[in-house]
Amino acid sequence: xxxxxxxxxxxxxxxxxxxxxxxxxxxxxxxxxxxxxxxxxxxxxxxxxxxxxxxxxxxxxxxxxxxxxxxxxxxxxxxxxxxxxx
Length: 86
Prior knowledge:
By secondary structure, the chain is an alpha+beta fold. It has helices spanning 22-33, 38-49, and strands at 8-10, 51-55, 61-66, 72-77, 82-84.
């Protein structure tokens, strides 16, 4: 029995247009929160807005999702296993 790979689609419409790459998140971290860490900024954004998407230079997508419990789940999707909807 072999498992087929999962492909996950994300909506860019759900995120601000100026926040996607690590560089974008670093600028946002400093200006909005006075932080140096893009991860901390994306986490805080997910707490406030329900989620955050961060595109890494190696084409991995890091997704921060606020769960019903209020906790934040971080998931990293490998290149080729995710995409944006049209």
